[in-house]
Each structure stands twice: as C-alpha cells, then as structure tokens.
Amino acid sequence: MQKKEIRRLISEMTLEEKAGLCSGLDFWHTKNVSRLGIPSVMVSDGPHGLRKQDFKADHLGVNDSIKAVCMPAACATAASFDRELVEKMGESIGKSCQHEGVSIVLGPAVNIKRSPLCGRNFEYFSEDPYLAGEIASAYIKGVQSQNVGTSIKHFAANSQEHRRMSSSSNVDERTLREIYFPAFEAAVKNSAPWTVMCSYNRINGTYASENKWLLTDVLRNEWGFEGYVMSDWGAVSDRVKGLEAGLDLEMPSSGGANDKKIVEAVRDGRLDEAVVDRAVERILEAAYRYLENAKPETPWDKEADHLLSARIAEECMVLLKNSGALPIDKKAKAAFIGEFAERPRYQGGGSSHINSFKVTSALEAAKENGLDVIYARGYDTKADCASEEMTAEAVSAAKTSDVAVVFAGLPDSYESEGYDRRHMRLPEYQNKLISAVAKANPNTVVVLHNGSPVETPWIDEVNAVLEAYLGGQAVGIAEVRILYGDANPCGRLAETFPKKLSDNPSYLYYFGEENEADYREGIFVGYRYYKKKEIPVQFPFGHGLSYTEFEYSDLRLSSEKIKDTETLSATVRIKNVGSRAGKTVAQLYVKDTESSAIRPVMELKGFEKIYLEPGESKDVEFKLGKRAFAYWSRELKDWHVETGEFVIMIGESSEDIRVSGAVTVESTDVIKRKYSADSIFMDIMADPVAREKFIPFLKDLGQVRPAEDGTEAAKEAMSEAMNNAMQNSLPLRGVVMFSGGRVPWELIERIVEVLNGE
Q1: Alpha carbons 673 and 141: distance in angstroms, whole number
Q2: Confidence at residue 705, expressed as pLDDT on a 0 to 100 scale
Q3: How far apart are CA 213 and CA 46, in angstroms?
C-alpha cells in the first residue's frame, strides 16, 4: 500500500483508533480497525526458530508453542563466521513465518557479551561489535528475503538480566559508539530491518523506551532507520514520553490504559497529534508490506530444515583442543558418557525456547551410523548430581573403550532469560566426572553444551575438547560427523574464554549497585581488554582448530599511504598444507601504532571463511574504509582517524597472527580546538595546526624552569628529563610566574589569540 493511501486511512480514523493502534491487541497481535478494513498482524518470538503461540501466551517460554524447528542459537551461529550460512538459516525461518502467518520474527538479538555471566548470552552473537553486526545483517537479509520482517533487539546497552527492567546502564558515549551501537548500526544500514525493539533498561538514567536521543536522533536521523520501533514486552514506563521519543508500538496490550493516556495528552495539548499519526503510519506500512506479500501456501519442510540445522551446527562447532584423539576411527570402540549424549541441551530458556518437532542426540546419530558405541549416563541434570554408581559405570565404560567422549555442559537451570549466572563453573559433579574418566582413558574427549564460556579446570587432563555450544535440535548429527571426521571442524570463538571469572573486565561492577550498572571498563570488552592488559586466557577470541593446517603468505596492501576518505585493499594468499579438505576463517585486525586516544591493541575489521582442498590455495581480499581505522572523538562528536601508521594483521585468531603489513593513513578531519591561558604546552605542541602558530613564540617565552629551593641537592635532582616533563605540563599562565615576571601577561593573551585564529 502506498504512503498516500495509508495517510488517507489515518485521516479517517478517530483519535481513539489511532491511539489504539500504538499498542498490541494481545500478546502477539497488533490491533485492527474493522470499520476501515485494517487487519491485525502477528509477531512471534525467534530468533533461532519460530516460537508461535496461539493460546496461553507468554513471553518467557513458559507455555508451549507450535511444533517447529530449533536452529543453533546465536552463541553458535556467530562462531560459524559465515555470512552465507546465517543468511540461509534466516531464509528458512522466514519461510516458516510465511507458512504460519507471522509478519515479524522478534530477532536477531545483538547485544554485546560484556560478561560471561549474562543469562541471555546464548541469544547474543559476540563480544565483538563488527562480528555481531555482520552476522546480524546476514540473518536479517535471509528472513526478509521471504517478505517477513525482523525486529533487531534489544536497543541498547542491555547486557545483563539482573534488574533488567529497572537498571540503568551508565555508559559514556564513546563506549556506546564503539562497542554497544555498531551491531545495530551495521544491520540498519546494511539490511534495513523492518522494526527495532527497544530494551528494558535505562541508559544513563533514561529508559530506552523514552530516550529520544537513542530512538530518534541516533537511530533515525543518523543511521536512516525507516521502520517502526516496538517495545520489549512490558518495557514501557511513560507512554506519552515514549511516543515523543520515537517509540511507535507498545507490546503487549496495555488493556487500553496507555491508549487513554495518549488520547488525554493530545486533548490536553501535551502531545502533538502528528506524533501519533507518524507512529501509526510506520506500523501500518510494515503491516501492509507483509499482508500484500503474504503466502500462507509456502511449504514448511521440517525434515529438510532439521538437516539444515545439522549442517549449520557443523559449521559452528569449535575444536578447542586436540592432542590426537580426534577424529575417532570409525572402527574404534567409543564410550559416550553423560546425559547430554542421550538428551542434549541444545537451546536456552526463555522467550526463544522452541518446541522442537524432533531432536537427534549424538547417541542416536552414532547408532544410526552403525558405530560401536556404549553409553553411560554419568550424571543426572534434574537431580543436579552424579551418584557413585553413575561415576563407576562411566569409568568402567571408559576403561573398556578405545576413546571416551564426555558430553558435558550447563544444565537448563544454569542460564536462561530472566536471571544471570553467579559463577562461570560447570556443575562440580561434571568436573569430577571428567577428571575420573580422563584418568581411566588417555583418549578422553569433552564435548561442551553451553551458551557462554565455562571454566575448564580439567583442560590439561583431557585429550580433546569440542565446543558444541547450543547447537539446535540436530546437534547430535553434527557432533558425530565432526567427532568421526566426516566433517572438518571450522568454527571459531566469537568470544574469549578467560581462565577464571575474575579476569573478566566487568567483574568488579557487573551487577551494579541497586539500579545503577556502571560500564567502567569502557571500550575494553572481551579481547580488547585481555590484549591491552596482557592477561593470559584459556582460549582467545577467534580461536578454533582444524583437522588440517593452513598457511598464510604474500600480504599485499593496495597502497603504502592513503587518505582516510579512501579505501585500502588487503589481499592474502591462504593454502591448505594438510591432508584433509577444510575451511578456515581468515581474520583481519587493525592496530593503531600510536594514538593520542586510549585505544585497544587491535580490533577485528574483516573476516572471510574459505574452503580449500589439500594443496589448494586462494587469494582473499579485504576492503577497509575509514571506520576500520577510526575511533569516536569526543571533541568532533564523530568518527576520527589520526594521521599515522596502522598495522594490518591477518591470521587464525586474535593470538595467532600469520602476516602483517603497515599503511600510513592521513586524516582529512579538521579538529578546531579552543585554547586558553590554562592550555598546557604538550597539548599545544600535539596539535599540528597550533604547533606551527606556537613555535615562533618559544623564543620570547624563553627557557622556563620551575623555581629551585637553592640547595645543591635540589639542583642535582632537577634533571633535564624532569624539567622537560614539568614544562610539558605547564599551562601558559604558569610562564608568567615561573619566569619571574620576565614574560608579560600581555604576551600570553596574544598567544591565545593567535592559537584560536583571532
């Protein structure tokens, strides 16, 4: 429907009807206006499958939804580092929405993994904003290719569940711009999601649902978002303020309470009716966009999607360690140990919980493939324990087998929407079980099922570790294919695994004080922090092993020097030097060798996943624009590149750089700084423009030295280095005093005038 037709409809509505359209009909539907033929449409939870509810609706996954397909969760799909694969997953979910009459799927969730403790980390992609933005963009393109909308969430700075509906995320603007905004920004600019969902929390004291700077100034005016903003379920505090700020749709239904407040505000002159019209227009544009392309006849082949889920999971699993136990010989006798081998944990709890139409465990997949496998339960997740009998059975199975595979991980009760973890440990009974099995069999492999990092106290005792994450309902198929070498592991960690929780940068402040959560670590999240602080980690960002080896060579940069308005091309040759076909993820990081701003050691600015046969080589090219070299300048209120040398580093992880090269980037930004008598020498000399103006005055200022106390000891202590350091920190006004009156105040005033161009 054209805009003019929608506006005509709006002109025929009563104020009450328009206000009503700004909130839900119920949990999952927008309102209709029957007298004007305006229908309601349905939205539904995702993001890794369709959680459609018709009756007993809720937003926490308490009640059942329709039978559907559970794809790997975001914690897994981000580890694929595969845009095309995630786009295919989105297409599949979009088709299921068309089949079921769902207009918008609520996802993807792109909040940054600030701490391993966040109960919703399994729904989020990464600690790195560039990776999160690229994977989110691919997912959105996939879903929306089927004429179904997405709702990217939760905007913004929503990285904890503790006090999630009242807590204020107190974050400086640079940190927001460099860490917590970019995934949303990239998705909006690259993929144009139909809707954006605002978060529950406050940001620097203002609820996201009524934050005009967030929802209008940044999202719409800066990034060009054209869809509508909806609230997270129950995130509205002041509905009228929300509308003015740019919150178009309140979900779920307010039972008419907030609709009345909107009407009263318009009639009292506190709210411009044009604001209501604008919100209704945005909501109807998305509704009719779906309705005019609705295809309920779209087939939904769940069995095919089950196999697709397995293939996606294959690409996501990360081989963390391998001392030779993997891949397992298909003729070997294997012991599958642990309840997750039979009943895998393959998704998280809460609003994204899918009612899977089938689940394939590793034990089932192994039997279907005729593999020689015995099973020992090992532990009981419901009872949260492992009895002596269970442990003894597991050890016995391990002793009589060629290889022992322990399927471990976090039980459902450990991580879910609604609450955060309090530690980073596996259940202690699982740690003890792993150690006992490792003592019984040197070829012990651990397969992890978890939504975020866990401590691995047994890491030196076991032969191999495979991170399966929450791999969807076909997780068992993928696990067996990787364990036995039918698939070559190619996932890479989208988050750092610290050795212990207290190493995490947000450790001291994560839960906050009452309703105040201070993001004191600033831009130093994840590997940005560990690299800067030189803190050893268990497994670094980007890490992942393969059954083959890759060689990097011949890095070629398109230029040795560019302006920040130009694009740099970086090309590297990668060769499979092993005996198996496989995929690798070439990761490009950028390092600013010297900066006046405090910056991370390195930042991910590109990645490509490629497949190579043994002996095959390919060239991989990356394109780097201004943002690859820039930081957010508080002075400019914009992205800024300082003139200087940057190092382009490409490798297998943040700790495994294979090739590097340098480029000089010339800034085209002009920062107009304001100087005064309080300005210090070093700041003036650091500004190229001011320095040229200042140098001619140095002779008149003379050699300015701090007063001495007259003793020989004091004179000896006043080294040249000390004098230079003190002079660098000296404000212009200090010259008058320290010169003993030889430098007149009028000269200082003249210098300030010249520096400011007056």
Answers
A1: 43
A2: 47
A3: 28
C-alpha distances in angstroms, 16 versus 101, 172, 210, 234? 27, 40, 21, 21
CA dihedral 723, 728, 730, 736 (to 10 degrees): 70
pTM given for the model: 0.93
Q: Residue 493 corresponds to which amino acid?
A: L
Q: Is residue 542 left, alpha or beta, with left meaning phi > 0 and alpha meaning psi from -120 to 50?
A: left
Q: Report d(CA 399, CA 334) in Å as an integer.
A: 10
For residue 114, the one-letter residue type is R
CATH superfamily of 550-666: Immunoglobulins (2.60.40.10)
Position 735 confidence tier, pLDDT thresholds 50, 70, 90: confident
CATH class of 302-539: alpha beta
Task: Tell me the pLDDT band of 68, cut-offs 50, 70 and 90.
Answer: very high
Task: In whole angstroms, give the CA distance from residue 403 to residue 326.
Answer: 9
Cβ(149)–Cβ(289) below 8 Å: yes
How far apart CA 723 and CA 226 sit, in angstroms, is: 58
Class in CATH terms, 38-252? alpha beta
Cβ atoms within 10 Å of 311's Cβ, excluding its own: 17
Residues with Cβ within 8 Å of 515's Cβ and at least 6 positions away in sequence, in order, are: 163, 166, 167, 168, 202
Q: For residue 112, give the nearest of 609, 414, 541, 489 by alpha carbon.
A: 541
Return the structure tokens found at 655.
């700790």
Give me the phi and psi of 527, to 5 degrees please. Answer: -60, -25
Q: pLDDT by residue (tens digit) across 152-162?
A: 999 999 999 99
Q: Which of 447, 449, 429 is nearest to 384 (CA)?
A: 429
DSSP SS3 for 368: helix
Distance of CA 668 to the CA centre of its chain: 30
Active site residue 232: yes
3-state secondary structure of 608: strand
How far is Cα 152 from Cα 137, in angstroms, rounded to an integer? 10
Considering the chain, what is the average pLDDT of its residues? 93
User: Which ranges in 12-110 belong to alpha helices (H)?
Assistant: 15-21, 74-77, 83-100
C-alpha span between 183 and 616 (Å, rounded): 34
Assess contact for 500 and 483: CB atoms under 8 A: no
For 508, what's the count of Cα atoms within 13 Å in the CB-facing half-sphere?
3
Q: Residue 398 in contact with residue 437, Cβ under 8 Å?
A: yes
Quick one: how far is CA 326 from the chain centroid? 31
Q: Which of 155, 236, 244, 253 is nearest to 195 (CA)?
A: 155
Of residues 119, 107, 134, 130, the one with CA closest to residue 50 = 107
Contact 605, 151 (CB under 8 A): no
Residue ranges of the domains in the chain?
A: 1-37+253-292, 38-252, 302-539, 550-666, 681-755
Query: 244 CB contacts (<8 Å, ≥6 apart)?
Result: 210, 212, 271, 275
Beta strand 334-337 with 206-207 is unpaired
Helix (H, G, I), strand (E, B) or coil at 318: strand
725 pLDDT tier (thresholds 50, 70, 90): low
The confidence score (pLDDT) of residue 714 equals 43
Using 50, 70 and 90 to split pLDDT, how confident is the model at 712? low
Bridge partner list, 442: none
Residue 439 · residue 400 · CB < 8 Å: no
Whether residue 718 is predicted with pLDDT greater than 50 in this model: the reply is: no
Q: Which of 45, 82, 232, 592 is catalytic?
A: 232
The amino acid present at 223, given as its one-letter code, is W
- Determine the Cα–Cα distance for residues 15 and 308; give it in Å rounded to an integer: 48
Mark out the alpha helices in 599-719 (DSSP H runs).
Answer: 681-686, 688-694, 698-701, 712-717
Q: What are phi and psi of 552, to 5 degrees?
A: -110, 135
Instruction: Find tokens 């007056």 and name the residue.
Output: 758
